[in-house]
Amino acid sequence: MNISKFKLLALFLTILISSCDREASSSYFRDADFNANWLFHMGDIHDPSKAGEDESGWIPVHLPHDWSIIDYAVQDSLHEGPFYKNLPGGVDVGYLRNGTAWYRKEFISPNVIEGKQIILGFDGVQSQMELWVNGILIGEHIYGYTPFQFDIASALKGPGEKNLILIRTVNPGENSRWFAGAGIYRPVTLSVLQSVAIAPWGVYVTTPDVSASQASINIEIEVSNMQESEVDVSGEILISSPDHQQMKLSTIAVTVGANSFATLIASGTIEEPSLWNINQAQLYGAEVALLVGGKIVDSYETSFGIRSIAYSVEDGFMLNGEELLMKGACMHHDNGLLGAAAFPDAEYRRVQRMKENGYNAIRTSHNPPSESFLNACDEIGVVVIDESFDHWILPKRPNDYSNYFEEWHIRDVQAMVYRDRNHPSVVMWSFGNEVQERADPEGIEIGKTLANAIKELDDTRPVTQAVCLFWDNPGKDWDYSEGAFSMLDIGGYNYQFLNYESDHLKFPERMMYGSETFPQYAWENWELVKRLPYVMGDFVWTGMDYIGESGIGHHDLFDKQDKAQGSFLKPWPWYVAWCGDIDILGNKKPQSHYRDILWGESKLEVLVSTPIPEGKESRLSYWGWYDEENHWDWEGHEGKLIQVKVYTSYSEVKLELNGTEVGVSRIDSLDKFVAHFELPYKPGELKAIGMQEAKEMESVVLKTVGTATHLVLDSEKTTITAHKNSLAFINVQAANQEGLVAATNDAEVKVKVSGPALLQAAGNAGPVHQGSLTDNTFSLFRGKGMVIVRSNGEPGTITVELSSLGLEPSRVTLESN
C-alpha cells in the first residue's frame, strides 16, 4: 500500500498534523502491565482494613493466577492434588476447589494525584470480586468473564506514599456447568489519565464500505471530561498499514460539557487496502492522540482489520465478498493443565492448534473470552462468534449468574461489545445459549433488550443465540422455538441439523448454522453446510477438550443384553469432558483424524478400535467418539480379531499386515469416507494404501512399537521472552529405539527445571485425574505428556530434565532473553 493512495473525504480532514509538532504530556500513561509482585492468601479475611498489618500466610504470585488448581494442604482419600471427591457439583467442574481467596499488592502513588484518573483495569476475575484500597471498599464485579475498570484515585494516599490494594475473589461453588476457575485469572493493567481523557475502549474503528480497490474508514473517539467546566478537544489519528505505510487523520474540535462525554469523528478512504481474511490476517494500527489547547492529554492505540461481512440465504455468509463455510469449533476458556489462567502464550497456542487442524471459526461458548484469545484470532485468521451468556433469569445451577442477571446483564454485554468490537475476527455477537426462557414472552423481551444493547454499540455485525430442543420445557415442541429466533439476524441451531431444510421451507429468509453439533455426525452436518447456502457453518462440541462436564464424551461397556443407556457424565476421578477433537495438550484425537478427511486436510488416516471384551458392547455418549487409537500395539490380543478403520477420500483402500494383503475396500458416498476391516492381531507392520483408479497414491503405516527405551522431549520453542508471563510447552513421549511413541506406556516421570524458570504445570491428556497439576511428578497417558515452564523474568539458559524408572532420561535447553 502506497501512502499516495490515501484520499481524505471530509473537509475536516484537510489538515494533517504530525504528532511531533505537538507538545506531549508526560503525566499520563495507559494500560501498563500490573501483574507483578502480588501476594496471595487462600481463605477469607474478616477485616480487610487490617490486612496490611501481617504478611504471614501470604505467598508471592504473578498474574494471571488460578487458585482452583492449587493443591490442598492435606492430601487424603478425598483430596488428591487440587481435586476434592465430595465437592458439591464436582462432576460439573472437574472436582476442582472453590471457596474464597485474597490478593494484595502495594504500590506508590503517582507524583500528581489531583485531577487524575487512576484506573485499575481487569480483563476478568473469577467469579465474584471486591476491590479494597487502603481499607476502603471501591466496588465489586460479579460476572467472571467480562472486563471492567475501577478509578481508585479517591482512595489513594498522597503523592509518593505507599498504598495497599486488596482483592477478594469468591468462587461459591455450584455456579457453573463447566470448570470456571478462580481468582485473577486474566491480566490486570494500571492507567494514570488526565481528567480529560479517552474513555475505556473509547476508540471505535469501522470500515463500512470495502472492496479490493478501496475501503472507507470511520473512527469514533469517545471523550470523558471529569472536570467541573467544559473543554474543547480535538483528535489526531495515525493509521499504519500492515506494510508500515502511514496516513494521518484529524477531527474537528468539539466541546465536552462538565462531567460529561462527547464523541469525535474522523473518516477517510484507503486505496487498495490490505484485507483481513482467514488466509491473510492483515492488521492495521490506529494511534489516537487527544488534544486540549494544542497539547496531547491522552493517547490510545488499537489494531483493526479491513474486511466486509454480508449474508443471505442465497449466497451464504460472505467475507470480503467470498462465501465462507465455517469449519467451526465450540471452545470453553480453560487452558488444560494451566487451569483457567489466560496466559497470552497459552491462548495463542490454543487458537494456533485449531487453525493447524483445519478450523477457521470458533464459538466462545458460553462467555466472552480473554482479549489475548481474540488477539490470537486476529493474528492467525480465525473468525469468532463472541458469546455472552449461558443463562438469563432462570438458573442452571443454584449459585450461577442468573442470581445477578437482572442487575448486571446490560453492563456485561456492553463490556463485551466495547472491548471486542475492533477485533476483525469477531463476526457475530451471541447473547445466549440454550436459555430456558428463550421462546417465552419474557425471554423474547430479554432477547430483544440484549440485541438492542449490542446494536447501539455496534451495528456492523449480526446477532445470534444458540437454540436447542425444549428438553428443559417439557410439553413444548420445536415449533415453539420461533419466538427464540424472532430477534436474531442468524439462527444458531444446537443439534438440530435434521430441521434445517424443513425450517427453511417455513422461514425462507432465516440464515442458520450448527451452533453445536455431535462429533459422530460430522459427515451429515458438513454435507448440509456444503449443500445449503443458508447454513453457513458447523460448530462441533467441542474443538478442544476442557475441564468439567466430566466425561460427557465417554463411552461405556455393557453386556450385550443390557439395555441401559449409561450416565450423562462420569463420576470421580474423571475431570476432563473428553469430547474434544483435540485433547487438553493440543494433540489430535481420533475424530480429528476423521475431520481431516472431511475437510480435505488429509486423504488417508488409520485408526484401530480398542478391543471389546467378549460379550460386551460399547455405547457412546452423544458427544463421544468411537474408542480408537492410532497404534498397532495390542499385547495380549494375539490371534484375536481387531477392528481397523481407514478414513479416506480415495475411492479404494488396501490393507496389508506384514506385507500380506488383508483386503481391499471400495468407498462411495454412503460409506462417509470410512473403510472397515477386521483381522486377527499379529505384531508387526499394518499398512493402509490409498488407491485411485487402481493406482497406489499414498500409504500410512502403524508399527508395533513394543517396549519404550527412553524419554523424548520436544520444546515447541527454543527461546522464550524473559518475562514472567512467557511460557514454554514441552511435549514428552516414551519412545522405542526407533523413536516411535510407545502408546501403551503410562510411566511415572519426574521433572527438574533449572535456570531462570519455574515449573508451571505438568501432566497428561487423560480424562481421569492423577493428583496434582503442578507437582514435579506426573504420569504419561498413552505414551505422552507435557511439561510447561514459565520464565522468572530473568535472561539465561533454562534446562528441563526428565527421568523415569527403566527409561533413559532426557533433557532439553532453551534460552530466555
How are the SSEs placed, and which strands pair?
Elements: E1 6-7, E2 23-24, E3 29-33, E4 38-42, E5 59-61, E6 79-80, E7 83-84, H1 90-93, E8 99-108, E9 116-122, E10 128-133, E11 136-141, E12 148-151, E13 162-171, E14 188-194, E15 196-206, E16 214-225, E17 231-240, E18 246-250, E19 254-256, E20 260-271, E21 284-292, E22 295-304, E23 309-312, E24 316-319, E25 322-323, E26 326-330, H2 344-356, E27 361-363, H3 371-380, E28 383-387, H4 405-420, E29 426-433, H5 441-457, E30 463-467, H6 482-485, E31 490-494, H7 500-506, E32 511-517, H8 522-531, E33 535-540, E34 555-559, H9 590-598, E35 604-609, E36 616-620, E37 628-629, E38 641-648, E39 652-657, E40 660-666, E41 674-680, E42 685-692, E43 695-703, E44 710-715, E45 719-720, E46 727-735, E47 748-754, E48 757-763, E49 777-779, E50 784-791, E51 796-804, E52 807-816
Parallel strand pairs: 2-22, 26-27, 26-33, 27-28, 28-29, 29-30, 30-31, 31-32, 32-33, 45-52
Antiparallel strand pairs: 1-20, 3-14, 4-5, 4-8, 6-7, 8-13, 9-12, 9-14, 10-11, 10-13, 15-16, 16-20, 17-18, 17-19, 17-21, 21-22, 23-24, 24-25, 34-36, 35-37, 35-38, 38-41, 39-40, 39-42, 42-43, 44-46, 46-50, 47-49, 47-51, 48-50, 51-52
What structural class do helix, strand and pairing data support? Answer: mainly beta
What general outline do the C-alpha atoms trace?
globular
- Proportion in helices: 10-25%
CATH superfamily of the largest domain, called what?
Glycosidases
Mean pLDDT equals: 95
Q: Distance between termini?
A: 34 Å
What is the CATH top level name of the largest domain? Alpha Beta
Second CATH tier, the architecture of the largest domain: Alpha-Beta Barrel
> Ranges with pLDDT <50 over ≥5 residues?
1-25
Q: Sheet bearing the most strands, described?
A: 8 strands, parallel, barrel
Counted by DSSP, the helix tally is 9
**Rg, alpha carbons:** 28 Å
Number of domain units: 4
Structure summary, number of beta strands: 52
- The portion of residues forming beta strands comes to 35-45%
